[in-house]
Design brief:
It is built from three helices and eight strands. It is an alpha+beta fold. It has a domain at about 25-100 and about 145-210: Double Stranded RNA Binding Domain. Strands 3-2-4-5-6-1-7-8 form an eight-stranded mixed sheet, with helices on both faces. Helix 2 (about 60-75) packs parallel to helix 3 (about 175-185). The longest helix is centred in the N-terminal third of the chain and has 21 residues, at about 1-20. The two termini are about 25 Å apart.
């Protein structure tokens, strides 16, 4: 139990340092874990989403289903009525926030202005000068986003595919993180049983936010997916 706690803290610290040191994050790294009994023998992959009774009118879930449906379509899945579907697809999702504290160096200026730093925007050291003044602890929020996709055979109820995608970073919105989670979860479908790998996706300028309503008040636009070219990092 202690090892799991320290492992999680180390992962959160690494995610925070990555955000702080990169300045501008250009990729989203998502860990994907798959459990599979997929035969690959079906000629037509028809499916319908399944929900728990208390999720029937859940607008958030409907939004995420559209994002996942876009990714399933790239793997020859076709959405149909539940009584005609060969497969049922269920989603689970969530977001958790943690605070991570890191020590950062503090710099001071041994020479008062105007000799060093002050009033000199071209000075590479800025107003603090090049000399260290110790360390100060700073706390930063880190958010962990999660998406699970479970595929079962409708006729038998047998689970044939179960994949989980998880990433961490400074993004506080699960909505904006969902396109990256969905594409990562279904990249290289179907994965083998027990496969764990990391998918690296480029960040979209709009942050990957899905289903924005048109300014005219029309129907939601199709969910924009992250740029193609997912890279799998073993």
């Amino acid at each position: 139990m202690n090892m799991n706690r320290w492992t999680r803290r180390a992962a959160l610290l690494l995610a925070t340092l990555t955000v702080l040191l990169s300045g501008c994050t250009t990729y989203v790294n998502t860990q994907v874990t798959a459990f599979s009994d997929w035969s690959g023998s079906d000629a037509t992959r028809t499916y319908a989403f399944t929900r728990a009774p208390d999720q029937q009118n859940n607008l958030e879930l409907s939004t995420y289903e559209r994002v996942v449906a876009n990714e399933l379509a790239t793997h020859a899945f076709r959405q149909v009525d539940a009584n005609e579907a060969r497969y049922l697809v269920g989603l689970s999702y969530g977001i958790r926030s943690d605070m991570v504290t890191v020590s950062e160096p503090v710099y001071y200026n041994p020479w008062p202005a105007p000799y060093w730093g002050w009033g000199r925007p071209f000075d590479p050291w800025g107003p603090w000068g090049p000399y260290g003044g110790g360390y100060v602890s700073q706390s930063y929020p880190v958010y962990t986003h999660l998406l699970g996709v479970r595929i079962t055979e409708r006729a038998s109820g047998k689970e044939v595919y179960n994949v989980t995608a998880r990433n961490s970073g400074g993004e506080s919105s699960l909505v904006r993180a969902m396109p990256y989670l969905a594409r990562s979860a279904l990249s290289d479908f179907p994965l083998g049983n027990g496969v764990v790998h990391t998918v690296k996706l480029p960040v979209e300028p709009n942050g990957g936010a899905p289903n924005e309503m048109a300014a005219t008040g029309g129907a939601p636009a199709a969910a924009p997916a992250p740029a193609p070219g997912a890279k799998v990092v073993q």
